[in-house]
């Protein structure tokens, strides 16, 4: 499974042309998501998850997309977070079905929702900052947690020069308190877009609201 992030013309037919090009290299499209509309220049950023049959080189995906006029590949990588991109609704459904665990569910689902590698909930409401919950592949933070709290609103974070984080891109959002923060990381990119920060902010606020109903 592979994830392609593309800039394409924001006009009818553009996505269909890309899909046709991918089909010509035997790629099976599992899901497409419009990440961001850039109305100032008439383009859109789309994420496409595809699968390739054995024997087909992944580089052919990039070549196929670059062969479409006015299409640019800005990110390409293996996609290990599952095949679907409709994870926002799935996360909300899980949270509403178990309101008392809504925050924990969001932490667990965050890597899939935002196509990231890991997520961790930092809790600094006590005498010291601790990692209250983390997904697999979360790096060791050490004293770095102290520079991330408090956090007033969802935002991207500058990656520190630290083993396991130096080449990562980070985004974070407060949960209930500016000292209880969800941090999410991607190794190597792509950068989190403004629309993704907004989605995280919405889901974080929703998780807190849902848990309050428990």
UniProtKB/TrEMBL annotation:
SUPFAM superfamilies: ACT-like. Residues 3-76 form the ACT domain. InterPro entries: ACT-like_dom_sf (IPR045865), ACT_dom (IPR002912). This is Amino acid-binding protein. It comes from Kribbella sancticallisti.
């Amino acid at each position: 499974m592979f994830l392609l992030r593309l800039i394409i013309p924001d006009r009818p037919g553009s996505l269909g042309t890309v899909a046709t090009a991918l089909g010509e290299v035997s790629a099976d499209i599992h899901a497409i998501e419009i990440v961001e509309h850039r109305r100032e220049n008439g383009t859109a950023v789309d994420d496409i998850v595809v699968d390739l049959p054995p024997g087909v080189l992944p580089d052919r995906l990039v070549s196929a997309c670059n062969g479409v006029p006015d299409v640019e590949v800005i990110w390409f990588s293996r996609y290990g977070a599952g095949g679907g991109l409709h994870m926002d609704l799935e996360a909300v459904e899980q949270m509403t079905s178990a309101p008392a665990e809504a925050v924990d569910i969001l932490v667990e689902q965050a890597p899939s929702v935002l196509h990231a590698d890991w997520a961790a909930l930092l809790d600094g409401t006590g005498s010291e900052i601790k990692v209250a919950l983390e997904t697999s592949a979360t790096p060791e933070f050490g004293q770095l947690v102290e520079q991330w709290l408090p956090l007033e609103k969802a935002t991207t974070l500058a990656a520190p020069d630290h083993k396991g984080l130096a080449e990562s891109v980070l985004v974070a959002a407060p949960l209930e308190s500016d000292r209880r923060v969800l941090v999410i990381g991607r190794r190597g990119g792509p950068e989190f877009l403004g629309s993704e920060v907004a989605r995280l902010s919405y889901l974080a606020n929703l998780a807190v609201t849902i848990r309050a109903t428990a």
